[in-house]
Write a structure and sequence with these properties.
- The structure is a homodimer.
- The radius of gyration of chain A is 17 Å and the shape is globular.
- By secondary structure, the first copy, chain A, is of the alpha+beta class.
- In chain A, strand 2 and strand 3 form a beta hairpin.
- In chain A, strands 1-3-2 form a three-stranded antiparallel sheet.
- Chain A has five helices and three strands, in the order H-H-E-H-H-E-E-H.
- Chains A and B meet through helix 1, helix 2 and helix 5 of A and helix 1, helix 2 and helix 5 of B.
- Chain B binds a DNA duplex through helix 4.
DNA sequence: TGCTTATATTCGTTGATAGTTGAATATCAA
DNA sequence: TTGATATTCAACTATCAACGAATATAAGCA
């Protein structure tokens, strides 16, 4: 955690919050295949166009994606490969978490 | 990201959301020193007692912390060291993110 | 039985954010 | 210019989580 200072907790939390939405995770997942337009992303993820655009801006602001404009089209791509490491770590913890919850339920029930 | 399935996006997002609060990050940071009681954690982080208790349960549910009860006292400890790797990765991306935002502002301004 | 301490839970208020809709903007082709 | 397409912006509603205050639960002790 690199000595979490008081003030940086908010900044770190903001970054985690950007990844704390299923739709944004789906968008990032689609972008694993490479650069894609907002329209393509909206279609693949099932988000409306306005929604996809808004979520992509959150990811852009946090530096997880980059974009370039070409005519009327805006192309998005993954900017920070660390995001996939983050997801892998989180995925790894999910089974443990489930097991832990089962234990708790057993204890209480 | 280990092939993110549609259904798992929500589960992963839940885990990220547990880390998307400054107070919970502060609680985890305090727990780096070792096992601590709810009261101690509330004092160290400046959270009220009720707040600390609630946040700790979120972390407990997601498997980031474990606890044991001893009389009237409940002791919490970090259960999943991966949480510190997560924070390190996020911290590493913060400088890049800031630089990226500066670029955007320059482009627009 | 009370009384104290430590933790958990409930309730009400407040602020933040997702999603939708419709308008506004920008580009390209005819 | 006009029309078609792609994207962004603004406003609205609904939902969710944080926080504080008060209360509940539970253990330890006189």
């Amino acid at each position: 955690m690199i000595e979490l200072s008081e003030s940086s907790a908010g900044v770190i939390a903001d970054r985690f919050r950007a990844l704390a939405e299923p739709m944004r995770l789906r968008l990032l997942n689609s972008l694993r295949r490479g650069e894609m337009s907002v329209g393509e992303l909206a279609e693949q993820t099932g988000a409306g166009q306005a929604n996809a655009s808004k979520h992509l801006q959150v990811l852009l602001q946090q530096g997880f994606v980059e974009r370039r404009k070409e005519g009327t089209t805006t192309w998005y791509r993954v900017a920070d490969p660390a995001v996939f490491e983050l997801c892998s770590l989180v995925c790894g913890g999910i089974e443990e978490g489930l097991e832990r919850r089962r234990k708790l339920l057993r204890r209480r029930g």
